[in-house]
Design the sequence.
């Protein structure tokens, strides 16, 4: 099988592990920087070129699209889909999961547990917005933030008003969510491949920080998840349309609540914490599912 991995850096842990696993199973694999691609968009013979050569004869593509290049990166994925190449995560599913508001609305529609969430742009009715999520303490997020950046915990009503007013001055979209105190700066990352959770880890925020992101200095360890958490993670990935996903769950007093569904989950933390060869499982999934024309959307949407 001939596999393309869309990644800006072939030395990244996740990318190199996927390359290693693909080669171990006798596949031809090429790392392609999506920003260095250029495309011929025609109705009869769509093509993608990279470094002066057409990318032809590929059976599957693995998108590792960073949040900062979502627009162009998903355009490249969409072009592969138009060429009939199987995409591990389809372009529509990636853009759906990257839109925090849209993803939460889709999850809510299907009854997935979520923190009570408010959404606003520049409302002057700050007090009412705070009351929507049952008051302080609460978490305020920039809609475009990633890896814990642009996330603030407001412990009092006055602090919440000040932060919201400050964000309003930026003329940006914000999410306001209830603070799940009982989570104790911990969340569970469930790694979904296909229709099952293949590995799970607990992420713990560094001392004094309510955010559990590894990029913010958090730590990880293996965790046993409940049947409800397992079901929630699989359903959340399916609702997004993702074959591979990292589903972040908080353990609340009223059951698991989903914080985010990540379309390009990293492999270092989950493989280190669990000792499970997740990269191999991803390649095995592609072997079973990568058939010409199997992509559902074929670049639509």
Sequence:
């Amino acid at each position: 099988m001939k596999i393309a991995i869309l990644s800006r850096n072939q030395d990244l842990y996740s990318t190199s592990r996927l390359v290693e696993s693909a080669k171990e199973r006798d596949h031809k694999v090429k790392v392609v920087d999506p920003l260095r691609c250029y495309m011929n968009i025609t109705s009869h013979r769509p093509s993608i070129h990279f470094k002066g050569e057409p990318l032809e004869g590929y059976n599957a593509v693995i998108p590792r699209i960073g949040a900062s290049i979502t627009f162009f990166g998903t355009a490249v994925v969409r072009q592969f889909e138009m060429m009939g190449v199987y995409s591990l995560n389809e372009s529509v599913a990636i853009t759906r999961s990257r839109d925090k508001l849209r993803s939460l609305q889709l999850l809510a529609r299907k009854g997935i547990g979520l923190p009570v969430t408010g959404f606003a742009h520049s409302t002057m009715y700050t007090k009412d917005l705070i009351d929507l999520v049952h008051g302080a303490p609460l978490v305020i997020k920039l809609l475009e933030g990633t890896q814990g950046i642009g996330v603030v915990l407001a412990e009092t009503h006055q602090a919440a008003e000040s932060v919201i007013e400050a964000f309003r001055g930026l003329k940006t979209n914000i999410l306001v969510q209830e603070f799940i105190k009982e989570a104790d700066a911990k969340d569970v990352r469930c790694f979904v491949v296909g229709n099952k959770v293949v590995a799970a880890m607990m992420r713990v925020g560094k001392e004094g920080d309510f955010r559990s992101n590894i990029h913010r200095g958090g730590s990880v360890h293996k965790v046993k998840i409940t049947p409800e958490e397992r079901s929630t993670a699989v359903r959340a990935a399916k609702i997004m349309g993702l074959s591979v996903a990292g589903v972040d769950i908080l353990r609340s007093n009223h059951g698991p609540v989903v914080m985010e569904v990540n379309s390009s989950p990293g492999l270092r933390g989950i493989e280190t914490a669990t000792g499970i060869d997740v990269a191999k499982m991803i390649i095995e999934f592609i072997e079973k599912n990568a058939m010409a024309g199997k992509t559902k959307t074929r670049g639509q949407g």
About this structure: The mean pLDDT is 89. The CA atoms of residues 17 and 57 lie 23 Å apart.
